[in-house]
Specification:
The chain is an all-alpha fold. It contains 14 helices and no strands. It is a multi-pass membrane protein.
Length: about 325
């Protein structure tokens, strides 16, 4: 009891001293920032670990399989279950528009049957909910003019309507870039596997297993090709489907080359080796083209950023001296 009383008295003395209060606050703030930095470091290390990423993918696949596999990742979550019924009535009734949207979603990696409903549900929610929040929580307390309020509501609704399309285009570009980046490694592995005696289906399945960590997007597409062929689909039809759902020019050229090799009966290993050499030459030409553009692109930062500061440093003192001479 006496120790507690002494501790309380010491705490009262510290609280009465402004310097001790400031010091304690600084210590607590430093400890908080340090703990936050450690938490962010652990989070980044956990997200960037390929083993953890693979384990999360296996857990997601197991959860999807246990749920029945009918709904994909887009509709398996709680948000997808909420947005899916909202967007079912907004899905285009025309078959051409529906197939075009399904193809764009497949190229973005969203292959579940309810992906289109979730997409249109998200568009409806982003178009309606933010203007309603502005109308009920912001505009009544800001005393804005009527024209400015209407313009803000229309701009918010328009931004919410366009945001899902912008996200979809960005996802397609990122996935296309990832597929193009992993294709040279996949071609090299395919050449090795086919020259070792494996058939095309077995070689693609083996390559898909080897690329799961380094290039998961391409490995996912190759796994889907292997599942289609094991389910009884013809290899040519599976290759055509691979070409359509990826939309990558290099994969389209690879599929065309393989189909011609199957049609004329030539060696698949030789065909893959020739296409790998052509793809390397194409990548080298693209790199040389980008390198040739660097000098032209450097003109703008040089003219607008470097030259003004150089002129100020080089011509500033003489101009000041001339101004003083003229003034005297």
């Amino acid at each position: 009891m006496d120790a507690l009383t002494m501790l309380l008295n010491q705490l009262d003395e510290w609280l009465a001293d402004p310097e001790m209060v400031q010091f304690g606050f600084s210590v607590l703030l430093g400890l908080t920032i340090f703990a936050l930095m450690i938490a962010l470091l652990l989070l980044v290390m956990g997200l960037s670990d390929p083993l953890r990423r693979r384990l999360r993918g296996l857990e997601a696949e197991a959860a999807t399989a246990s749920a029945g596999g009918g709904a994909g990742k887009a509709t398996g979550s709680g948000v997808g279950q909420w947005l899916g019924p909202m967007g079912e009535r907004l899905v285009p009734s025309k078959e051409e528009a529906r197939s075009r949207m399904a193809q764009r979603l497949r190229r973005a990696g969203k292959r579940s049957p309810g992906a289109a409903s979730v997409f249109y549900g998200a568009r409806l929610a982003l178009t309606v909910l933010p203007p309603l929040l502005l109308l009920t929580l912001v505009i009544p307390f800001t005393r804005l003019p009527l024209g400015a309020s209407l313009l803000m509501l229309v701009a918010t609704a328009l931004a919410g309507y366009l945001l899902p399309s912008l996200w979809l285009e960005r996802a397609i570009k990122q996935r296309t870039r990832a597929l193009r980046r992993g294709l040279p490694d996949a071609l090299d592995l395919l050449v090795v596997c086919t020259e070792a005696g494996l058939g095309l289906g077995a070689a693609i399945q083996r390559v898909a297993q080897d690329l799961e960590v380094s290039h998961p997007e391409l490995a996912d597409e190759l796994h889907l090709f292997s599942m289609q062929t094991r389910a009884g689909m013809d290899s040519k039809a599976a290759l055509r489907d691979l070409e359509e759902r990826t939309g990558v020019e290099d994969i389209r050229g690879l599929v065309t080359t393989l189909l011609q090799s199957m049609r004329f009966g030539t060696s698949i290993a030789t065909t893959l080796r020739i296409y790998a050499v052509e793809l390397r030459d194409k990548r080298t030409q693209e790199a040389e083209e980008q390198a040739a553009k660097v000098s032209t692109k450097m003109l703008f930062p040089l003219i607008f950023c470097v030259f003004p500061s150089f002129f100020v440093v080089a011509l500033g003192p003489p101009l000041l001296g001339a101004m003083r001479a003229l003034a005297s």
